[in-house]
Each structure stands twice: as structure tokens, then as C-alpha cells.
Amino acid sequence: MDISGSLPTPFTYTFSVIPNSSVPSSSPSISPSPSRVSTALFCALLSLLSLLGITGNLYTIGLLLRRRRSRRRREAGLSCCLMKVPVLSLALADLLYLFTAPFIVYDSLASGWAFGELGCRLLLSLDLLTMHASIFTLTAMSLDRYRAVAHPLHTTSSNSSSLLRVGLAWGLAVALSLPMMITLHLEDGENQEGQLCVPAWDEQSSKAYLSVLFCTSILGPGLAIGALYATLGRLYWVSQTQPAWASGSSTACPPRAPKPKVLLLILGIVLAFWACFLPFWIWQLLPLYQPDILRTLPVGTQVTVNRILTGLTYGNSCVNPFFYTLLTGKQRRNRQTLPSVNHLCSKNSPLK
């Protein structure tokens, strides 16, 4: 959490590994706490963001479930859209993340950690869990879009395959957040600060763990999604500039042209994630790789930067429902207006 009082003493490092945790600093705890005006503004902004985000994500989930029930009444036995399960996963991750906001607001106004060791382990680990679940689900969605374009005959749209990919994304997220959940504990703060929620590891362990998390949440998925969208961009360019017979493909159904609007909506969700979480990760890695930079900043400034970046990560969960609603609406219109690609390929195949 954003615990203003949990400032480390000289040569003692308390690194913030999630947006709500302690301010990273190696300076003595001699600076005054942030002003009441700054704290009030931060709490008001975070409360507004969480209210808007929770309302938007609940609306998205309700919209998806209502569409699923109405279609079941019209078409018994038809499986739901492949896109719905990942979008539900993203909305659920956003909701879980936003539900931690009231605890941050309370903790910013109180002195010390007030939610016990169980709350320390669960609430702070939930940030890492939902962050990884979101980016892994987005990577799976991007891979699905690539397969649907490049290999339409081999694309499956069953609920079981979507649930398997989403389950794998959440399983990997749980595995990566477990070390934080296990090592978090309560310590007595100095100068009547109360109890603080901090991880039980040294500087080198923090550096290794944070570096791994940066690779799994930003660098690795970023390279994978970038490569997929670069390939999709090339396929789209070829489809617009070259006829199918000129590609020299001997397959019955060559790669189809991507739908730019659907791809751009998914890419918009990915870019919003990076825009909101990359600054946070830069701030987390600074004290590990460039500690001298933070030593020049007053502690009050560090607290302010940490709060701004915390609000930015919550802003991501606030704007995501806009993309989710557009994405599911676009997918629904595409199903109503376009025939099945697999059906067309099978119909035109010389093997039939």
C-alpha cells in the first residue's frame, strides 16, 4: 500500500514491489509526511477512479452475461463467442484490483497497517496477481487473433479452449505472485509509525524478483504481442496489395485479411496497459539499478510520485471497460454479418 510512514532508515531498503506498497527510498526518515491537502486529493482521486472503474466493469460483465443468456434462448447448444471468456477475465481482474482501493484510501489516512497479516499478504499480492492475469490474457487474445487470421482452418472457438487459456493465464499469475504472498509480513515501524507490511528479503532478492516480474509483466509479453501485431500488419498489407492467387499459396484457404477495428481495439487495451504500468515499473526499478537518483529526491517528492503512479495504474482499470464494450459489440456485429470462415474454406476446398 502507499504507506507514507514506511520510510527506511539509512542502509535499509524497503522496496515497493506493487503500486500500493512502501515508497522506495534509501534516505533517512527525516522528511515530513505529505501534506493533508496532498493526501486528501490522492484519496479523493482514487475513490473516484475506483467508483467509475467498478461501475464500468460490473456493467461490462452484466452485458456479457445478458447477451449469453439471450442467445442461449435463441440458439440452444451454440457455444458463446470466443472473445467473451477473455473479456470476462480482464473485467474480473480489473474488479479485483479496484476493490483494493478503499484499503489504500484508509491506509493513507491512518498511521500503520490496520488489516492484519492476512490482509497484508492478500491485498498486496492481489496487485501482482491481477496485473499478470491481465497481460497474460491480453497475450492470449492477441495470439487468438493471429491464429484466426493466419490459420483460419485450424482456429477453434470452443468454450473449453478459451477457458483453458484463461485458466493457464491465471495459474501463471498465481505462481508469480506466490513469493510475494509468502514473504510479506508485519513489522513494527519506527517513531510510532505502527505496523508496516513489508517483504522479508534483502536488496539482492528484491532486485532479482522485481527483474523477473518486469520481464513477465512488461518485457516478455511486450515482445510477444509486438511480434504478433507486426505479423498481422504484414498480412493486412499483403491482403490489400496482392490478390490471393498471386501469393503462391497452395492451401485451400489462404490467410484472410485482418479486421483492423477488432485488432486496433485489442491493441488499444494493450497500449493502455503499458502506458499505465510502464512508468510504475520504471519507478520500481530505479532504486535497484540507479539508487543515487532517488537519494537526490526529498522523501515527500517520492511519496507524491508514488501516489501519482498508483493512481495511474488504477486509471487503467477505469478506462478498460470502454474498450471491452466496444470490443464485444464489434465481435457481435461481425458474427451477425459475416459467414463462418471455416465454412467458406471447407466449401471451397478441392478435397470436398
What distance lies between the first and last C-alpha atoms, to the nearest angstrom?
62 Å
What portion of residues belong to β-strands? under 5%
What order do the SSEs take from the amino end to the carboxyl end, as H and E?
HHHHHEEHHHHH
The name of the CATH superfamily reads Rhodopsin 7-helix transmembrane proteins
Based on helices, strands and strand pairing, what is the structural class?
mainly alpha
Family: Belongs to the G-protein coupled receptor 1 family.
Subcellular location: Cell membrane
Domain G-protein coupled receptors family 1 profile: 56-324
Membrane topology: Multi-pass membrane protein
Overview in brief:
The protein is mostly helical. Helix content is 69%, strand content 3%. β1 and β2 form a beta hairpin.
Reconstruct the topology from this structure.
Layout: H1 36-74, H2 84-98, H3 101-109, H4 116-150, H5 159-183, E1 184-188, E2 195-199, H6 203-241, H7 260-289, H8 291-295, H9 299-337, H10 341-348
Helix pairs in contact: 1-2, 1-3, 1-9, 2-4, 2-9, 4-5, 4-6, 4-7, 6-7, 7-9
Fold and architecture overview:
- This protein has 352 residues and is mainly α.
- It has helices at 36-74, 84-98, 101-109, 116-150, 159-183, 203-241, 260-289, 291-295, 299-337, 341-348, and strands spanning 184-188, 195-199.
- The longest helix has 39 residues, at 36-74.
- The model is unreliable at 1-32, 73-80 and 335-352 (pLDDT under 50).
- It is globular and about 70 Å long.
- The protein has a two-stranded antiparallel sheet with strand order 1-2.
- Helix 1 (36-74) runs parallel beside helix 9 (299-337), helix 2 packs antiparallel against helix 4 (116-150) and helix 6 (203-241) packs antiparallel against helix 7 (260-289).
- It has one domain: Up-down Bundle (Rhopdopsin 7-helix transmembrane proteins), CATH 1.20.1070.10.
- The termini are far apart.
- High affinity receptor for urotensin-2 and urotensin-2B. The activity of this receptor is mediated by a G-protein that activate a phosphatidylinositol-calcium second messenger system.
- Pfam families: 7tm_1.
- It is a multi-pass membrane protein.
